[in-house]
């Protein structure tokens, strides 16, 4: 027989290629029809002639088997059924059901093999149709536990189909089979019906480790999953690598991380530290928590690493900013040098790292590698490439990448909306025309673009669309709308959205407080802060906003700012860059320069804002020497001054009369730092030249301002004209000021005072007549006093002739008494005779 088999194999290699069924195969004894004879035939015939000729060959084989007279001769019949099952694997999917239909008596093995093949080729419903066909043929004897398990897998989370099969499982007694029950639990977990999966688990008499792992993976909340893992351990279930991998995937939250740390100890105890899947889960857990040093330690200690291991470490570095971006690049370079087969996760992590460190050149090189390996049209890779080019401010390349993506998704369009602010609305409408629905991030990007562009009407329309699309319930979208309306100066709408929130998180409170402060509603900002402290735990942004409000407010006592400072010290937030900058600004603006210096000295990380705040504080107090000393020290420490820093230095030069130094600082700003001067810079320079009496130079500089001089520049020059008595220039400046702001009383008053000083009373009368004719009224000046009451929110404001205070009479008597004492002191120093005319109001007669 061996000789016949050898001869047959050689002969079939020749005959099959000519489409002839080998006669040697037909004449061999039936007992020689083993798998070694049927499998080569199915391979060659199926590949060269397709399914129809293969079926003919199979039929001839079946006819030969049917003529076998003895039981021994019929043994190959079972082998031919295997032959029929094998035959199904070598044909295209469109012919497989024809091949299966020609099997006269299919076995459970052939059915299972066919269903498994269909599932591998992603045709679950055809596999279900094959399972259903056994019911129609009443061939339930060909259905075993594997068939049922495969049918449940084919349900693909379809609850209705799975429930029907569950009914069959119970009625046919398969519910006692652990394999079938495990498949049922997986199906219910996949369909989102975890309660039924748990019910199946509870009815199991002897669940195996797969049963426990299936339920463990079905939990949504990490706390519940880890509680179940504890019960597994208490019930004596020995964890396997799948158990550890699943449990560790839940251990990245604030409360669950400590449990994950304990699980790692258990991993080492059970000897699973060398398992690749467990190591990958540990790396992912530590990376999600930002514990990248621990993640790297696990990575370095792994004896075997797969692509997932490298990707997990790379992604962990890439999601963090700072120096970790360089570490991510180092990991990626190592992967390339090892010749690893990179996937989209590897490329995405590397490109993202380039964006964090803003390394455009390296990003372009990786982009070239992406094109080389054929991932340039991949949507995830394209999205990260767009983001990286945006961070590197190469917007044209970002647009080209978007156009190359084969099927842009919502993330792709959202990235484009965030990058191209001016075209955000048209991009949003174009995205919807493709049938893509925006998500919350899309709306956030769109609202941000509308806010920057100051598109009030469009912002209201998007607000309506958010309500219609039920996105207003998303905290992030509502917070963006609060910020948008605050920027539009519609604080009533901002407050309404805030009050309609079901849950007010810290970001929501911060948006409202910041909105009030930006719109000059400092009292409302402070009161909102007081309400916020009763509901949430304020962070550095909360304190930063309220400190800015207190700094800008003229009628809120500094004591409240000091109380905020004390609260910051208790919470350990006083040294943060945002808070320290706000404290410096508050103390500087409210005149407490010594406290500003203490805060500055205690700031560990001195940002440009911190340097600018302390320099501005000294400039406001006219301390020229301290300003210049700090400015030089700032440069020595490697901090580049911004436009506000230069403005403060120019103010100090102006008040000290250091015109030449001011000129050099101005030129240094423009030429060395390439900072475009803003109107405030020109105004300070004009004021500096004007105070020094160089009015012609000041006027010449004023005319060099791009777009013409603004109000602040003209007002500065007018003040200098009055100081030096230049009536002609003052008249030219006043005419420009009245043309720009006819309702302002300032130019009229300054001009009238200048005329009065020159004795030009007719001109004074003309100015006052012009004010009456235009309906311009002089604004009453106000002053504020801190009454020293800690519980009082506001300072007390008063003006000339104001008698609204309940003790105004006593106040006036005291003011008159103080004025008399001042006069007496002056007269006594000049040697004149002192005449007492007013008594001390506090002395009883």
From TrEMBL:
GO terms for biological process: RNA modification. Pfam families: E_motif (PF20431), PPR (PF01535), PPR_2 (PF13041). The keyword Repeat applies. Keywords: Repeat. InterPro entries: E_motif, PPR_At4g14850-like_plant, PPR_rpt, TPR-like_helical_dom_sf. PPR repeats lie at residues 177-211, 275-305, 306-342, 607-641, 642-677. The keyword Repeat applies. One of its GO terms (cellular component) is mitochondrion. It comes from the Eukaryota. GO terms for molecular function: RNA binding. PANTHER family: (WILD MALAYSIAN BANANA) HYPOTHETICAL PROTEIN, PENTATRICOPEPTIDE REPEAT-CONTAINING PROTEIN. Belongs to the PPR family. PCMP-E subfamily. This is Pentatricopeptide repeat protein. It comes from Crotalaria pallida.
């Amino acid at each position: 027989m061996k000789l016949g088999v050898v001869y047959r194999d050689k002969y079939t290699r020749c005959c099959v290629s000519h489409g002839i069924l080998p006669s040697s195969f037909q004449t061999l004894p039936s007992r020689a029809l083993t798998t070694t004879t049927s499998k080569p035939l199915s391979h060659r015939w199926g590949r060269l002639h397709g399914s129809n000729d293969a079926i003919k060959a199979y039929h001839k084989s079946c006819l030969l088997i049917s003529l076998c007279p003895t039981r021994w001769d019929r043994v190959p019949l079972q082998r031919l059924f295997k032959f029929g099952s094998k035959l199904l694997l070598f044909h295209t999917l469109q012919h497989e059901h024809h091949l299966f239909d020609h099997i006269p008596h299919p076995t459970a093995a052939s059915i299972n093999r066919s269903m498994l093949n269909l599932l591998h080729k992603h045709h679950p419903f055809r596999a279900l149709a094959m399972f259903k066909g056994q019911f129609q043929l009443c061939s339930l004897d060909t259905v075993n536990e594997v068939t049922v398990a495969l049918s449940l897998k084919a349900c693909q989370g379809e609850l209705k189909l799975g429930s029907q099969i569950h009914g069959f499982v119970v009625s046919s007694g398969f519910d006692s089979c652990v394999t079938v029950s495990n498949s049922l639990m997986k199906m219910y977990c996949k369909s989102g019906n975890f309660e039924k999966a748990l019910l199946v688990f509870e009815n199991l008499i002897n669940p195996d480790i797969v049963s426990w792992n299936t339920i463990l993976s079905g939990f949504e909340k990490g706390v519940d999953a880890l509680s179940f893992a504890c019960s597994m351990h208490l019930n004596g279930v020995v964890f396997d690598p799948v158990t550890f991998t699943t449990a560790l995937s839940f251990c990245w939250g604030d409360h669950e991380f400590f449990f994950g740390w304990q699980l790692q100890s258990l991993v080492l105890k059970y000897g699973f530290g060398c398992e690749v899947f467990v190591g990958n889960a540990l790396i992912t857990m530590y990376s999600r928590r930002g514990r990248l040093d621990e993640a790297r330690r696990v990575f370095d200690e792994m004896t075997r690493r797969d692509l997932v291991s490298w990707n997990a470490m790379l992604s962990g570095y890439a999601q963090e900013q700072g120096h970790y971006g360089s570490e991510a690049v180092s990991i990626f370079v190592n992967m390339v040098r090892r010749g690893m087969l990179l996937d989209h996760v590897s490329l995405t992590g590397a490109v993202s790292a380039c964006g964090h460190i803003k390394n455009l050149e390296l990003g372009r090189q990786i982009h070239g590698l992406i094109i080389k390996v054929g991932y340039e049209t991949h949507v995830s890779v394209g999205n990260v490439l767009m983001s990286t080019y945006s961070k590197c401010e190469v917007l044209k390349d970002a647009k080209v990448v978007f156009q190359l993506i084969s099927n842009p998704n919502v993330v792709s369009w959202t990235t484009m909306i965030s990058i191209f602010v001016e075209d955000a609305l048209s991009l949003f409408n174009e995205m919807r025309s493709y049938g893509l629905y925006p998500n919350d991030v899309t709306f956030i990007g769109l609202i941000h673009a509308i806010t920057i562009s100051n598109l009030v009407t469009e912002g209201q329309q998007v607000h309506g669309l958010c309500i219609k699309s039920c996105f207003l319930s998303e905290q992030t979208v509502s917070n963006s709308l609060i910020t948008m309306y605050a920027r539009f100066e519609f604080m009533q709408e901002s407050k309404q959205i805030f009050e309609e929130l079901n849950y007010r998180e810290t970001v929501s409170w911060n948006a409202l407080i910041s909105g009030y402060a930006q719109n000059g509603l400092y009292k409302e900002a402070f009161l909102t802060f007081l309400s916020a402290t009763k509901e949430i735990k304020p962070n550095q942004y909360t304190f930063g906003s309220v400190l800015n409000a207190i700094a800008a407010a003229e009628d809120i006592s500094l004591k409240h700012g000091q109380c905020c400072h004390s609260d910051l010290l208790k919470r350990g937030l006083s040294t943060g860059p945002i808070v320290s900058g706000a404290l410096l600004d508050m103390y500087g603006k409210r005149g407490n320069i010594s406290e500003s210096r203490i805060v500055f000295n205690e700031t560990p990380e001195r940002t440009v804002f911190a340097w600018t705040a302390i320099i501005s504080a000294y400039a406001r107090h006219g301390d020229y020497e301290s300003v210049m000393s700090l400015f030089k020290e700032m440069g020595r420490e490697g901090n580049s001054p911004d436009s506000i820093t230069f403005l403060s230095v120019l103010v100090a030069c102006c008040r000290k009369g250091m015109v030449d130094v001011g000129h050099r600082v101005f030129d240094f700003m423009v030429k060395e730092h390439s900072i475009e001067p803003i109107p405030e810079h020109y105004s300070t320079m004009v004021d500096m030249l004007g105070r020094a009496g160089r009015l012609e130079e000041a006027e010449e500089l004023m005319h060099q301002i791009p777009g013409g001089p603004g109000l602040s520049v003209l007002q500065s020059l007018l003040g200098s004209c009055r100081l030096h008595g230049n009536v002609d220039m003052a008249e030219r400046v006043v005419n420009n000021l009245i043309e720009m702001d006819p309702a302002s009383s300032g130019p009229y008053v300054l001009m009238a005072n200048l005329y009065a000083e020159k004795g030009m009373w007719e001109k004074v009368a003309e100015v006052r007549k012009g004010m009456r004719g235009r309906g311009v009224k002089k604004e009453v000046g106000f002053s504020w006093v801190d009454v020293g009451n800690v519980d009082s929110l506001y300072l007390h404001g008063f003006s000339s002739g104001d008698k609204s205070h309940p003790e105004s009479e006593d106040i006036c008597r005291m003011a008159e008494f103080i004025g008399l004492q001042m006069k007496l002191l002056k007269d006594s120093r000049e040697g004149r005779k002192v005449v007492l005319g007013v008594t001390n109001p506090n002395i009883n007669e």
